[in-house]
Amino acid sequence: MHVVATAGHVDHGKSTLVEALTGTDPDRFAEEKARGLTIDLGFADTTLPSGAVLSLVDVPGHVRFIKNMLAGVGAVDACLFVVAATEGWKPQSEEHLRILELLGVGHGIVALTKVGPADDDLVELAHLEVEERMAGTFLEGAPVIRTDAPTGVGVVELRAALDDLLATTPMATDHGRPRLWVDRAFSARGSGTVVTGTLTGGRLRTDDEMEVHPSGATVRVRALQNHHAERDELPPGSRCAVNLVGVSHDEVARGDVLVRAGQWHHTTVVDASLRVLDRLDHPVSRRGAHVLYLGSGEHPVRMRILGPEALEPGAEGSVRLHLPMPLPLLPGDRFVLRESGRAETVGGGEVLDVDPTERASRARPDRSVDRVVRERGWVDAE
After folding, report:
1. What is the pLDDT of residues 179-190, one digit of tens each?
2. Which of 78, 97, 176, 208 is 20–30 Å from 314 (CA)?
């Protein structure tokens, strides 16, 4: 199973394209339908010509809903990047592309939408601009499929291209440690609390005993669903609806995480790499109201840059992040950092150490075993 997220500027036709591909309107709220604007995450699935099953996460394109976009792309395998031929590359096209790169997404295809209303010259110009903007990114050389969802133009070709994309995209790895970042929590009539998210790290089974964090509530998995079908077990990489016993739906929220007890180190301090976006017009320092986007959550953090006082645009360095609550994290977890005062994406990186022992003035983190042994005198093989 693979999970693919849409990405692209507001009103470039992401939701319309998802509906054309799956038959499901991903816009769930009346306000979204009334305004013709995606506000929150939407979900749909389809079976491709090869028989492969695809889960699609539709994200909002408007800058005001960037936090909802970030909640949807934290655990995806690839992206369906959408650019309208009628408008071409826009500011949120650029920001979404940079966010996907910061999160380590390495596979994707491009849909050039709304080719029906655009004349041939405009379509050609938009296609050339997309290829120019993708140069040097993970989308360089990716197929660009021309589509017009309302008339069905290019939809068959896009489904075939998605089939090819999934065939070359690695499957999620099973490490025996399931972790599900919650992106929705609600009460279903006759069932009780249901949470949804993308499962990573390990399998989930009915009757598994789990914990919800940060509350620490112990819960039991009563039932599992994937693509509207009941399952006894789901592998990592699955979109999951998990019916939980032991917690009320109003005690779970987006950004919470479902894990197995005793398998995780819950930390409030991490050392991490940080790559600052080169389009910023100022250096990044410890000053500022920084917000960390990791998994499906957003967390205000205190940040200290390790080494220099500041990082210039385009630079990469190390930082120490202080979280407001313990989270079950691993080296390699990817994140995006935004500055709420300026309402801008600063950069992103990956967690390097979930239990730093060196003082910030001396810390030089990386993911090597040698460093861990040098600092602690031992390393746990697990």
Report:
1. 999 998 999 888
2. 78
